[in-house]
Amino acid sequence: MGLTKQEFAILSEKVLDMVEADSAEVRLQETEDLQVRSANNDVTSNGFIDRFQIGITVSYGKRSASIEINQTEDEAIRDAVKKVEAMGKLAPEDPEHLPPVEPGEYLTPITFSEATAAMTPEEALAQVRPVIEQSRAAGVESAGYLERSVGSSALANTNGLFIHQQSTGVKFSVTARAAEGRGSGWASAQATDLANFDPAPVGEKAIQKALASRNAKERKAGRTTVVLEAPAVRDLLSILSWNLGQRGFDEGRSFLNGLVGDDGELIGKQLFGENATLYSDPLYEPAPCGVHSDGIPREKTMWIENGVVKNLMVPRYWAQKNGTDPVPWPGNLIMPGEGKSTEELIAGVEDGVLITRLWYLRQVQPQTLLYTGLTRDGTFAIKNGRVVGPVNNFRFNESPANVLKNIVASGKQERVLGSESDSPAHVPALVVKDFNLSSVSEAS
Amino acid sequence: MQRRDWLKGVSVTGMGLLSSRWVTTVEAATLVSEKFPALADLALSYASSLGASFADFHVMQTDSESLFAREEMVQGVNADSRLGCSVRVIVNGAWGFAAGENLSEEAVKKMTAAAVALARGQAGWRAHPVEIESLPAYDGSWEMPIEIDPFTIPLEEKVGQLLGINRSALGAGANFCSSYLRAVRERKWLANSFGTRISQSRVRINPGFSVTVTDPRQGGFASRESFLPPRAAGYEHLCDWKSVEEASLAVEQAKEKMAAPSVTAGKKDIVIAPSNLWLTIHETVGHPTELDRALGYEANYAGTSFCTPEKLDTLRYGSEIVNIFADRTADQGLSTIGWDDDGVQTAGKEFPIIKDGIFRNYQMALGQAALIGREGGSNGCAYADGYDSVPLQRMPNISLQPGRDDGVTVESLIADVEDGIYVDGRGSWSIDQQRYNFQFTAQVFHKITNGKLDGMYKDVAYQGNSVDFWNACDGLGGKDTYELGGAFNCGKGQPGQGAPVSHGAVPARFRQINILNTAEESGRKVASKCECSGGGTAWA
After folding, report:
1. Do the domain assignments include residue B94?
2. How far apart are CA A218 and CA A124, in angstroms?
3. Residue B126 domain-assigned?
């Protein structure tokens, strides 16, 4: 582990020099992961994983092919280049093929921390140990996962592009379960820098939720006001972001087609509530991200501002065809909040449900972006502005588009993990009205 | 070879000299490498010297190829090859694991030391020591039988197949069509401290397509995906696939679906085709009967299970006609293999999960059977999805057995439904973390009226509780209706791993299942009466 930027540049050039095709792109990635997984208050598995990956794409005119390998011997790379060139020559012409990306201007966010990179196996275990000991002391069974990752990547091509970025990350999630009373609680944290990371309060939060969610009472399914904690919000916003593509909209197969009026106009139209804003920014300090998407520079991009759609993702080919600029896929998601505490959000709800986390989200109806999924690990009834006790879990059938229309209030932004995505996000808890809790789940 | 060796001979400032300064120091490793026994001996003896009571050493190479075509364009021609090794140890009753792509002696020693450090670091605060059963020592090899190696088929032929599908769909009126073909060869070499030395190889293939028709005036669209499942097979799997005909049919069905009446929510009898039921089996029987889940090992991710150990041999999981068996030996089964990744031989380890409706056994990996007092040890269900993954308990092939009456067909099952739905093709799927509440959709929902197909419905999902659902089963097709479906990538674990698994099924009838109208669920108003004629669908 630990090749320098200059070494990445040399190795990129070395691979590109082997290529005889018209043009080529090389992608290099070096990663080192430390993993500690636990269940039933003991470590169950773990890992120290060292990887190197080489990706090569070659093009002959509009014919192209790609290969990925992980062996660094000269012979292995030569074989890979030969193979991918043979594939590229045989591939049919793709009318939408474009030459490699031209070099651009790239932002320089701080995505690397020496302290995170220096973590040892013993230190990774030491991060998890207090949570396990807390759980034992509280009489609950905890299951958790800590992962520390260190990575360096480079993208280079025959147009002279060379981008290098280093990154670190540490994430932790834990589920505490109380056997008596079938309680369950979950919490998580994620950071770039180890200095901003502490699993102990995460464990404490999960334990408290587990104890508080014992002996859940029955509550019927139905549309209701919900307080979605930040992990649930980030899942729904991730789903929404995956579906904000210009091409799908232009082709008439996006949920957005059903939202615009007869004029067919989308950009600048108020489709969601005035309190719904979503943007991305690689330089956003609490949750920085990669500086490019396939070589296209990422910059601060407003997707939805005060309920108005401002931008959609535009692939290079689609941009060229329509005479616009490409807009890369986001590397992070940021939703500003009102800064209210969860208690303040609850205080504004007369009758509703507090939801810790969502699970198993799957698309049911692409036309409306209807997704189904379930609540888990801490679901509570709210009456007259306070939590009155745990209730059963629910299956929901709801569209993130409806959620953005129905935001009543928002909390303080948090960097947490979701069930569907671990990419950086900084989002608040939300109070959402008319959320469709479709059926009861017996799971606890 | 160390990564910096790659730089040897390269002047840091002399980029122009690079092309003539390649250094080839180490032979490219393959799975027949003579190096492996020596590396294994090094890893196992070094682990032992560091205090390991058990160790194993895996080498894995996964080669894959994927092709993607959109309309008349081929937009993805990709190959992937990953080779590496791992060391797994038990030290003082704790697991440790490390892996990397570097097959040098130095790297193997480093990863062995890291695995031992991760195990040793639990000393003093571990509550329950890991204990595993002894396994026989095997010295053997196993190769999945295939007829045509997909990696030897010329690219032009494979691409031609995809473009043929797309042209057929476009010719039938699709606005969009995408098709794909994925093939994987997985080679594994395993040595462990019981004395086992095993080499294995298997191949799997996954073809498919999706067609979409749009209605710009209404802002509507409908899609229909192909039904051919992935298989542990060679290119011969595609030979009998009437893909061009299916693409054309899919377009007709997508059009019909878009114009179909919206279903009325409520209880209905449903008949489910194997093309859809395999996934329901996977979610409602496969995952709940993983012992590691039932014991809490997956609590932080995939979840636990309603199917807890005290229910063994007592839970009425389904009606008396329901028999669901597990194996890793089925022909073309995606989970089929000679030995699992713990080194347990799979032949002879087949087992019933549900027999005559009663829950009879769990899927288990090394060291798990004793946790519930079962004799006989692991039933061969360990799998690691790559050189860099620790073996986990993963699903064997889990299949619904045919009914006792061989004469029962899907038509005869439908004939006994007055007002219901015939469910065909895999749609979306979701189930809670203890596997009670599920909700599934499909590619096509055929309306059944008085025992006959009567057009289609749209906006349909079926939802229920796993045990209630299987107890509502009152009809199963005979052995001639059995089909093998499956998933190329079933997810589990932290970090996540994908596993291929097959599920055989016959068409089955279920009484009074909860049907949802997904348009209503989304908050859209549904027209009380459709102006369109649904039209009939003939049996192929």
Report:
1. no
2. 40
3. no
The CATH number assigned to the domain holding B158 equals 3.30.2290.10
> How close does chain A come to B437, measured CA to CA in Å?
5
Question: CATH number of A5-211: 3.30.70.100, 3.40.228.10, 3.40.50.150, 3.30.2290.10?
Answer: 3.30.2290.10
In sequence order, which residues have a C-beta less than 8 Å from that of residue B276 and are 6 or more positions away?
Answer: B423, B424, B425, B426, B427, B440, B442, B443
For residue A109, cis peptide bond before it (omega within 30 degrees of 0)? no
To the nearest whole Å, the CA of B329 is away from the closest chain A CA by 28
Residue at B527 is within a domain: no
Q: Which is it for strands A407-410 and A430-441: parallel, antiparallel or unpaired?
A: antiparallel
pLDDT at B16 (0 to 100): 31
How far is B425 from chain A, CA to nearest CA, in Å?
Answer: 14
Q: Looking at the predicted structure, is the pLDDT value of residue A416 above 60?
A: yes
Tally of domains within chain B: 2
Contact A376 B433 (CB under 8 A): yes
ipTM, 2 dp? 0.96
Distance in angstroms (rounded) separating the CA atoms of residues A64 and B76: 8
Sketch the domain layout of chain A as residue ranges.
5-211, 212-233+337-441, 238-330
Out of A47, A129, A144, name the one closest to residue B300 (CB).
A144
For residues B373-385, average pLDDT: 97
Determine the structural domain holding residue B291 and report its residue range.
Answer: 266-521
My answer on whether B414 and B504 are in the same domain is yes
- Assess if residue B235 is contained within a domain: yes
Residue of B nearest to A249 (CA): B219
Best mutation target among A374, A375, A406 (most B Cβ atoms within 10 Å) is A374
Q: What is the 3-state secondary structure (H, E, C) of B375-442?
A: CCCCCCCEECCCCCCCCEECCCEEEECCCCCCCCCHHHHHHCCCEEEEEEEEEEEEECCCCCEEEEEE
Q: Tell me: the pLDDT tens digits for A91-106?
A: 999 999 999 999 999 9
3-class state of residue B1 by DSSP:
coil
Asked if B296 and B322 sit in the same domain, the reply is yes
